[in-house]
């Protein structure tokens, strides 16, 4: 399979699933636009890509100006957008007994609101190319797990967002799908402060 000539925008591409996705698409000759908050790591991933050097767009997806810039820069550089991969997200521990509204807002802002906004801005261009949107959800969007309440809720929201947008854009020949991977040990878990024992409970 080749994605030669296809423009693929990947969020959260500086590590974990997003980084692996970028490298894989590069092996399929895609034209990449990668974004994340860590410029150094984005450059490291770009150096591992096999095809054309990816366009690197640093940004914080909770910042609306940064989100606007991600789309504008991609279109300015490539002239189109074929595939949007909404991968960026954060994970934090917290049950109904020890969570907070601050944590809830923080997780939903990055895991849901930012995807909602970026997709809104990307859709006109993806309709033009009859392209694809892929949202990286999680098994926790389908099954209940203790101790990561806000995260589970955010991924369930992404699954419903995916279904609704798929129905809305199907008449325009745009496919919208979510992937729900099982627990994959990445920096996402380490950065959340999750211990090895807590991680084992999810595996």
UniProtKB/TrEMBL annotation:
It comes from the Eukaryota. Coiled coil: none annotated. The keyword Oxidoreductase applies. InterPro entries: NAD(P)-bd_dom_sf, Sc_DH/Rdtase_CS, SDR_fam. It holds the Pfam family adh_short. Keywords: Oxidoreductase. GO terms for molecular function: oxidoreductase activity. Belongs to the short-chain dehydrogenases/reductases (SDR) family. This is 3-oxoacyl-[acyl-carrier-protein] reductase. It comes from Apis cerana (Indian honeybee).
């Amino acid at each position: 399979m080749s994605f030669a000539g296809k423009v693929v925008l990947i969020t959260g591409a500086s590590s974990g699933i997003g980084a692996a996705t970028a490298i894989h698409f590069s092996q399929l000759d895609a034209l990449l636009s990668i974004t994340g908050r860590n410029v150094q790591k984005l450059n490291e991933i770009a150096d591992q890509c096999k095809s054309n050097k990816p366009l690197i767009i640093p940004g914080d997806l909770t910042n609306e100006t940064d989100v606007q810039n991600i789309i504008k820069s991609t279109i300015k550089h490539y002239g189109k957008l074929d595939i949007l991969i909404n991968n960026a997200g954060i994970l934090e521990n917290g049950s109904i007994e020890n969570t907070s509204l601050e944590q809830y807002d923080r997780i939903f802002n990055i895991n849901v609101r930012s995807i909602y906004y970026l997709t809104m801005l990307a859709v006109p261009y993806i309709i033009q190319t009859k392209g694809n949107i892929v949202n990286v959800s999680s098994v926790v969007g389908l099954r209940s797990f203790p101790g990561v309440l806000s995260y589970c809720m955010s991924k369930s929201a992404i699954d419903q967002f995916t279904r609704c947008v798929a129905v809305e854009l199907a008449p325009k020949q745009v496919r919208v799908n979510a992937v729900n991977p099982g627990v994959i040990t990445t920096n996402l878990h380490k950065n959340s402060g999750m211990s090895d024992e807590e991680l084992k409970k999810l595996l």
